[in-house]
Structure formats: structure tokens, C-alpha cells
Amino acid sequence: MDKCIVPGTFDPITNGHLDVIKRVSKIFDEVIVAVAESEKKGVLFDLDQRKKLAIESCKKISNVKVKSFDCLLVDFAKKNQCNVLVKGLRGYVDFEYEFQMAALNYQLDNTLETFFVMSPPKYMYLSSSHVRELARLGGDITKLVPACVNEAFYLKNQ
Ligand code: PNS
After folding, report:
1. What pTM value is reported for the model?
2. What positions carry a catalytic annotation?
3. Average pLDDT per block of 10 residues along the chain, 158 residues long
4. What b-and-e string marks burial along 33-66, b requiring 16 or more CB atoms within 10 Å of the CB?
């Protein structure tokens, strides 16, 4: 298949995100990882840092491009001439929210399809917010995030 967008806040990117990106990079010719500016979420890492961490984490996957956006996702997709969004689903907790987002995006642009990829069991529990909490309280996040993200938390806590 041609190309897809994997959108998210990526605050920060985790091994769970990376698992989804790697898997879809084998299916699509090109994968655009779209890092969203997020006002409502009160992010820990600013947009530039989140983008840089995503670039570093994906550098070994040759058909992945990382871009940031600060507009509607449907508009970003149109601008990038892409009509497939891919989101990871960890379980039923994600389902309601992702279902609503997919329906809303489809309502805004019915040429845009959302595909879902199920997380493997080892990443079912993993979220950026849990990683932030663990890092804040001194927990070990080395198995949960790419090395550059671990390093970014270390530098933040200096
Ligand atoms: O995985 P996340 O972090 O919950 O991803 C959420 C994201 C970035 C995909 C979503 O917030 C988004 O699409 N933001 C861009 C603005 C937009 O199009 N919102 C949908 C209509 S409210």
C-alpha cells in the first residue's frame, strides 16, 4: 500500500508506539509519524522535543518520516495526500475514544479511513502518561521507551 499516517501526541514516544510504527512500515511504502501540538493535554515535552525524540527513535526505519502539525488531522492528511490513519489499540479502554475520533474524522472527511493495530500483550499496559509518572517517581523505564527518551528524562531531572 501507498502511505499512512500514525498520529499522536507522543509525549513521549514509547516502545508501544514504536511497535505499531515498525509493523505498519512493513505494510505501507511510506509512514508519516505525525506529532501533534497539544494544548489540552498539558504536555511534558514541547513539540520540538517530541518531534526530535520521534525522529531519533525511528531513524533505523527507512520508510518513516516524522512531521509535526498544529491543525486538524484531516487537514494534515489532505496536505500530505494521504487517506489512511493508523492508531494502536491497547484494549477496550482505548476503544471508545478511538472509535469517536475515527467517526469524527470520517465525518469531516469521508475519504479518510482509520485502521487499527492491536498492541501485543507486552505493551497492553504501556502509555506515555504511565511512563511520565514512573520517570517522575524514579521508576525504571528503560524497557518501556527508546534509549533517547530515557536519556531525555534523565536530562530533564538534572
Ligand atoms: O494518541 P493520542 O495522543 O491520543 O493522539 C491524539 C491525536 C493527536 C491523534 C488527536 O488529538 C488529533 O488528531 N489532534 C489533532 C486535532 C484534531 O484533528 N482533532 C480532532 C477533532 S477534535
Report:
1. 0.96
2. 17, 41, 90, 128
3. 95 98 98 92 93 98 98 98 97 90 97 96 94 95 97 90
4. bbbbeeeeeebbbebebbbbbbbbbbeebeebeb
Distance, CA 74 to ligand 1 centroid (Å)?
Answer: 10
Atom of ligand 1 nearest to the CA of 87: 1
CA distances from residue 123 to 19, 69, 135, 143, 152 in whole angstroms, order as listed = 9, 26, 17, 11, 21
Owner of C-alpha cell 472509535: 99
Q: Yes or no: say if 112 and 105 are a contact pair by the CB < 8 Å rule.
A: yes
Alpha carbon of 8 to ligand 1 centroid (Å): 6
- Residue with the nearest Cα to atom 6 of ligand 1? 8
Q: Determine the residue type at 76.
A: F
